[in-house]
Recover the amino acids of this structure.
């Protein structure tokens, strides 16, 4: 059920409706929008007795949500969610995901050491990224492959954040790493392999930081949205969806990047959706063309693997761009962004003069 408040409803009236819902033993999720606030109701086993709610001051209507996902749905919140991050450095404008600005997340697959992280970070911030990615906990297919540096890797990323003004995106693979990622990073990544790890999703829903949720390797759109619903149902409404390719019969790429899911998500959900052309293709020579396509199709951002020495990378070197290739990609991304009414914000470019002046 969804309680739609009148455009002029006061905060007090919204609060009273939430209290009433909670007095029934349900959970109320107040979702303020540009036009009006909607309050999602979860925790109900069957029909909610809504007569009393309808009569409350400030309430416009109470509607049944027929889709399995409720909080994720555009029916609940018609305007696209814009996630705002406070500026890292004084005077820097805030960074957003989901608005006109394209979110550019770049960095190595895994943090390998401080020098590697700093070399890559310096290049991606100069090229225009606002976020730095890097895994400290790596879900690898083989137990013998590099598993990540753990907390030390998170500490290196925290240093990258301070030095370059980049917001940090990194993956949590279990409860323990999620708590640490929540402490050090700006965005908690939930990887494709954990998209249906429901207890981890709920835990991410109780975390303070926004969550970047990657689509499972064979997840349908509905399963993808339901995974986001798990996070939101626990009270964390800052979820970014990420298309990273699904497994198909095709063998010319590692995965098949399903760009059609971007407009499909945008039709059904208010959550921002970004694209990962690195895992989506698995091949360096396909990352730039698919990044261009992702921006053209209307994605809210990109997450791209970049390494200063991909041949010696400890993971995913084959799909990592050289920094020069990332520079060239960003030039193209800016041009395509303009065609679809988006911009790559200059926030990070401000970092260029800051770095060269220091
Ligand atoms: C990653 O981003 O490094 C990663 C492991 O991604 P995915 O979960 O999409 O495979
Ligand atoms: Mn990777």
């Amino acid at each position: 059920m969804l309680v739609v408040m009148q455009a002029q409803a006061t905060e007090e009236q919204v609060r009273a409706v939430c209290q009433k819902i909670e007095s029934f033993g349900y959970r109320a999720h107040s979702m303020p929008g540009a036009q009006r606030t909607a309050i999602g109701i979860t925790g109900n086993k069957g029909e909610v007795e809504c007569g009393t709610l309808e009569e409350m001051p400030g309430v416009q209507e109470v509607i049944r949500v027929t889709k399995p996902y409720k909080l994720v749905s555009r029916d609940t919140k018609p305007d696209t969610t814009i996630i705002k991050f406070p500026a890292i450095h004084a005077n820097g404008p805030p960074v957003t995901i989901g608005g006109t600005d394209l979110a550019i997340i770049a960095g190595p697959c895994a943090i390998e050491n401080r020098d590697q992280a700093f070399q890559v970070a310096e290049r991606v911030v100069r090229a225009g990224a606002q976020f730095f990615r890097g895994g400290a906990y790596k879900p690898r297919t083989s137990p013998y492959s590099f598993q990540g540096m753990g907390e030390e890797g998170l500490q290196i990323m925290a240093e990258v954040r301070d030095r370059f003004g980049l917001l940090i995106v990194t993956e949590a693979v279990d409860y323990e790493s999620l708590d640490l990622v929540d402490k050090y990073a700006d965005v908690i990544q939930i990887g494709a392999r954990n998209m249906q790890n429901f207890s981890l999703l709920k835990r991410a829903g109780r975390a303070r930081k926004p969550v970047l949720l990657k689509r499972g390797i064979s997840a349908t759109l509905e399963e993808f949205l339901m995974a986001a619903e798990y996070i939101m149902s626990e009270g964390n409404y800052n979820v970014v969806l990420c298309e990273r390719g699904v497994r198909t019969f095709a063998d010319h790429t590692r995965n098949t990047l399903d760009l059609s899911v971007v407009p499909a998500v945008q039709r059904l959900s208010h959550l921002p959706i970004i694209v990962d052309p690195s895992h989506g293709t698995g091949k360096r020579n396909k990352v730039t063309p698919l990044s261009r396509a992702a921006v053209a199709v209307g994605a809210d951002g990109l997450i791209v693997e970049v390494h200063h020495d991909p041949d010696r990378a400890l993971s995913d070197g084959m799909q990592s761009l050289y920094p020069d290739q990332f520079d060239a990609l960003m030039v193209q991304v800016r041009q395509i962004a303009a065609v679809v009414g988006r911009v790559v914000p200059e926030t990070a470019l401000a970092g260029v003069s800051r770095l060269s002046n220091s």
Remarks:
- The CA atoms of residues 169 and 187 lie 5 Å apart.
- Residues 323-339 form the longest helix (17 residues).
- Residues 83-357 form a domain with the TIM Barrel fold (CATH 3.20.20.70).
